[in-house]
Amino acid sequence: MVATRAAGRHRRYGRGMHLEQFTAEGRLDADAAEELTWETTRYASRIHLTVGDRRVLAQNLAVCWDELDIGPGTVVLVEVADPMGDAAGEQRAIAGFVTKFQSLQKRPDQVEREPWLSRFAAAAHRRLR
Fold first, then answer.
1. Which of 20, 27, 54, 62 has the most other CB atoms within 10 Å of its CB?
2. Angstrom distance (rounded) from CA 96 to CA 49
3. What single string gives the DSSP state of each residue in 56-99?
């Protein structure tokens, strides 16, 4: 039972379970894991991640993200189940969580710079000319 992300859609399997699988485009770091942990509080549904042979509750991502070793090319399966059987709530949860997850990944080509540091470096460079 594997569903793949196709144009932002996911598949529902059985009663009260939605699955979505995608391939990570970047790395998951501690900050992103912390944000994803907070993202789970927006939904009543239980959100699980399966990476390789490990399955974790997304609420615990902040403490176990490094064990999952999510990087470019890693296949991630997200499973959402609502104990009350709210299909609309499950759809919101899986769409919101996966969208947030994909937006937080750090791609290898991304260079992180603080805006103030960039301005400082540009000003110093101008002074050195």
1. 20
2. 14
3. EEGGGHHHHHHHH---TT-EEEEEEE-TT--HHHHHHHHHHHHH
